[in-house]
Amino acid sequence: MSDLPDIPTKLGAARTRLILERPFIGALVMHLPLVPVAGGRCETVATDARALYYNPDYIAALTLAEVQFVLAHEAMHCALGHFARRAHRVRRRWDVACDHAVNLLLVEEGLRPPQGALANPDFRGLSAEEIYPLIPQESAERTLDRHLFDGHEADSYSGAPGTDGEERPLDSGRAVLPAPGAGLDERAELARRWQSRIVSAAQQARRAGRLGESWLRRVDAVIQPQLPWRMLLARYLVSTARDDYSFQRPPRREGDALLPRLASGEVELCVAVDTSGSIGAEELAQFVSEVDAMKGQIRARVTLHACDERLDPRGPWEFQHWEPIALPPAVGGGGGTSFVPIFDWIAAGHRRPDLLLYFTDAEGEFPREAPAFPVIWLVKGKGRVPWGERIQLN
Fold first, then answer.
1. What is the spatial distance between Cα 316 and Cα 314, in angstroms, rounded to a whole number?
2. Which of 71, 74, 119, 140 could disulfide-pair with 103, CB 3.0 to 4.6 Å?
3. Which has the closest alpha carbon to 156: 57, 8, 48, 79?
4. Rounded distance, CA 250 to CA 28, Å?
């Protein structure tokens, strides 16, 4: 129990400490009005991305440090857009995944969680989308709070008439919750609003010298558009196409006028596949299918090679832009991982690629220096690359 005289004072003190000690998180917390709710309808805390609802008895039982954590927890759910990112996922598993993601961030920041907060260290560094498939379908884990993001539970918190026609009493009417079944447009507008808030909070904290590089990366991940890997891969491949205007003199039978014409050149595309065992056959087939579909559009001649610790002795396999890519029945591998052999093979003069596309988990030995040609890494997992363009395989 806290020695503070009342719950509003305790909440105010917790917000003030967050603003002073962690201005980035504190600025986000200030966007959520605090609304007390009767204990029968809210055991702990809840949010709908518009306000923070709390059970006064629950807040009274927490230490001041734990109250800071709870306030930050709700604000980060909103700032990270968890209310707009569930898509097709099962709600309960998604809520659990979101709690793990938020709590691990706050624990890393040095905040103290209440007892029972979900924070599996095996999920550290993963987003809610990456954690979700790791949560068992019948998980018994319970979230720290209630997530009122989908609208159909909002009526029990809104202060509006319930199904029995009686007024739902609240101590404050500062927040207006979405009606049951709120549409996607409303949620999209909330997501844009929170994007703006997280950018503003990051700018203020950075000017004060109180925003670390890890938070900067997370802010970038939120504000940058999340595009499917196929779209990103297509964008990079199309950018290598050699379509340009030619002013070469046309044949005499076409006339004497010298007009610009669109001329195409063939792209030399090298594709490397990590066969160390971390890439499944289905994922490999999807990847090859995407490359196969796009190589005709950019007139790319494809040289495909496989590598784990060493190059597959049966490779490379070559395909013209009009030929379908067909992998051999079994691509060798299953050992350790080194990316050096592919680059050594190219450096030995076997190819002069316009682009190298490497499909891998990025867990292995990299060459010390970047090559003279562009490299795109299509990465499964959370491995990092020292240079080149990285596309996350979601």
1. 7
2. 119
3. 48
4. 64
CA distance 201 to 25: 8
Amino acid residing at 271: V
Amino acid at 295: K
Q: Is 109 exposed, middle or buried (0-12, 13-18, 19+ CB in 10 A)?
A: middle
Pairing of strands 34-36, 244-246: unpaired
CA 68 to CA 56: how far, in whole Å?
Answer: 15
The CA-based diameter of the chain, rounded to the nearest angstrom, is 96
Question: In a 3-state reduction of DSSP, which class is residue 53?
Answer: strand
Q: Which domains does the chain have, with CATH numbers?
A: 7-223 (no CATH), 229-249+259-393 (3.40.50)
**The residue type at 359:** F
Calpha distance 98→84 (Å, rounded): 12
Residues 363 and 217: their CA atoms lie apart, in Å, by: 21
Question: What is the Cα gyration radius of the chain?
Answer: 27
Residue 361 phi, psi (nearest 5): -100, 0
pTM score above 0.90 = no
Enter the tokens of residue 232: 């990103």
Per residue of the chain (394 residues), give pLDDT as tens: 444 458 999 999 999 999 988 888 999 999 999 999 875 677 889 988 889 999 998 999 999 999 999 999 999 999 888 888 887 888 889 999 999 999 998 998 889 999 989 999 988 888 888 888 889 888 889 998 888 876 544 333 333 323 233 323 333 333 333 343 345 677 778 888 888 888 788 777 776 666 666 666 666 666 555 556 666 666 666 666 544 444 455 555 555 555 554 444 678 889 898 887 666 777 777 777 878 877 777 778 889 998 888 888 888 889 888 888 877 766 655 567 889 999 999 998 877 888 899 988 888 899 999 998 888 888 887 788 888 888 877 5
Question: Directed axis angle between helix 64-79 and helix 91-108, to 10°?
Answer: 120
By three-state DSSP, how is residue 244 classified? strand
CA 242 to chain centre: 32
Q: Which amino acid is at 174?
A: R
Name the amino acid, one letter, at 393: L
Q: Is 99 exposed, middle or buried (0-12, 13-18, 19+ CB in 10 A)?
A: buried
